Fold each of these.
Amino acid sequence: MRVSRESLIRLAKENALERAFNNRDVVAAYLTGSLLSDADPMLGGTTDIDLVLVHGTQPGARREIVKLSPDFHLDIRHRAKSDFKSPRELRTNPLLGYEMYDPMLLYEREKFVEFVQAGLRAGF
């Protein structure tokens, strides 16, 4: 079976929706990393799916790796909604600012991502 960018995005979306359905604390889920590019995400026949879950409260674990096959896995980062409290300050945060500037939104319970991006992108 050939793994395509589209099938990896579908897997990410299915996992995000399943986790949001099973955990009402999940506010949003978005995709970052190599799958955002139109280029082939595979490097040496392997890749990861960079998924971010935003929780309403402080999550128990900050990071989680879920093996889906020998060649690819989910790299899940858990963030608290409070991490994005001041969207304008995200401009100076090299990780969160970049991650939130143009992710692929997979799930959103409230207009959280739109609000954060408006503050982050203001003036650009």
Note: The mean pLDDT is 86.
Amino acid sequence: MPLYEYRCLDCGRLTSLLVRTYQPPESPLCARCGSTRLRRNITRVAVLRSEESRMDDFADPGMFGDVDENDPRSVARWARRMSQEMGEDVGDDFKEMVDQLEAGEMPEGMPGDTEEGDL
């Protein structure tokens, strides 16, 4: 069942209507002022995906296209996106590592985490 959102052109209020058919309402009313002068908004939709579908996306080399492995912030954006895609709690250690990467720091034990004298 679709959810339609309208913005009232008179008072500016956003009104959401759950419709039991796939046809939009013919003359919706503003919940605040009762006006019929409403403009339909484009709204987000949710798409449910299987775990298999999400895992297939991880195998796509295009998922790494905008990752600069020399930039900790770029790696952090990628890691956060991957953890959100998984939809599971990744744990405090992972979150701490991503926070360090976002701050521009290389966490201990990651490749590239060497002292200049260690080379």
Note: Residues 72-86 form the longest helix (15 residues).
Amino acid sequence: MAKHEVGLDVKMLVAVGNVDVEIPVKADGRALGRLRISKGGVDWTPARKQKPYRMTWEQFARVMSEEGKLRG
């Protein structure tokens, strides 16, 4: 299984306002893509691609509930 690296350094709860939060994601040291979080939803931009895949929060909630695995 790949070793994943997700970079985010937050010392406190931070409300996402007018500035998006962008999180780089790596697998085995190689860029997998970037996750961008905003008030409107989430975007996923794969490595070496310019255009992101976009979901509203409602779409994200539905996909996670239907496709995700319930943890413990």
Note: Helices lie at 57-67.
Amino acid sequence: MIIVTARDGIDDRIDGLDLGADDYLVKPFEIRELLARHPRGARREGSGSPALLTNGKLHLDPATREAGFLGETSLLTAREFAVLLRC
């Protein structure tokens, strides 16, 4: 799991990692940085496919660029997916 947040304090980072996150990424960030970090976690899990990104209500699937919110899913363009990741 990667935490993506605007909270950039060292205590915030340590707390996030202590809660079980594999990585902590501070916004704003370049999509290339997220994509560079993400495959490492997927390989470590041994699943072979990238894990879903979620905040509890919204989920994003980096492998398919599918977004889901409250039971509804949509296939996003590359640009839409990149914009949503920045939110």
Note: Confidence is low (pLDDT under 50) at residues 40-45.
